[in-house]
Specification:
about 45% strand, seven-stranded antiparallel β-sheet, 7 strands, binds nickel (II) ion
């Protein structure tokens, strides 16, 4: 029998140099487990083909939600250390953090961080640490 290696989230996070560049640390079936350091604002986007899980390891992450660009009613969810949330597929969201926060994300393979929008904030989709 082959014993899988244990993975230290904190050691992996120490290897992340840049904010907003998710790094893959494991694959679970068709899903990738990623870690990232986030600070400041991100863009509104959605992922039409996958749910996206955010788990905060340290700091605080805010997630804004709206129906579409014309929707004036933005709902904000604040995730503190140890809290998580699943963004359902197709739902517009915008992450932001006042101070640097560290997160674990789980989403299907082949998913762009900028979802349907793309553009300059797009990171590599399967950059392994
Ligand atoms: Ni997203």
């Amino acid at each position: 029998m082959t014993s899988p290696e244990s993975i230290s989230i904190h050691s992996k996070l120490q290897q992340v140099q840049q904010q907003w560049t998710p790094k893959v640390i494991a694959q679970v079936n068709e899903n990738l487990v990623k870690i990232a350091k986030l600070q400041g604002d991100f863009i509104w986007h959605q992922h039409d083909d996958t749910d996206e899980m955010f788990l905060v390891v340290s700091g605080e992450l805010n997630l804004d939600f709206r129906d579409d660009a014309s929707d004036p009613n933005v709902t904000t969810r604040k995730l503190r250390e140890g809290e998580m949330l699943v963004v359902p597929k197709g739902v517009q969201h915008r992450p932001y953090a006042e101070e640097e926060c560290h997160v674990i994300m789980i989403e299907l393979t082949g998913v762009r961080n900028t979802g349907d929008v793309g553009g300059p904030r797009t990171a590599a989709i399967d950059d392994w640490l």
